[in-house]
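Now for one specimen:
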Amino acid sequence: MRTAVEIVSFGYLHEAPPAAHLTIDLRQHFRDPHVSPELRYMTAHDDPVRHAVLNTPGITDLVAATATAVSAFASGPSAGTVTVADGCAGGRHRAPTFAMELAARLELDGFAVTVVHRDLAKDVVQR
């Protein structure tokens, strides 16, 4: 039986982070596509946003490290779903891109993954 993993992407500016075994905060250390006017109203479903996020130094290393952490949680003696929450400011760019990349990596590792983008469809946060 494959271990279930739930990944929830979210925006800190909308509401509190969801409950999770592991919460990743992408706000301070990784480029925010929101600052580029041409990317601001796009989402992680758009190639230019995914390209901008995934080409930020350190992001793919963090995906790999998070996948390793999920494996550690899954190898523990307690059964059950491992929940990962990853957040950025508005939940439209960095967090959902990270969630999709982590999901792809975990699926290759044999996990049964579901992804929820809590804030992806919400309006752009004006800041």
Summary: The first helix runs from residue 37 to 40. The mean pLDDT is 93.
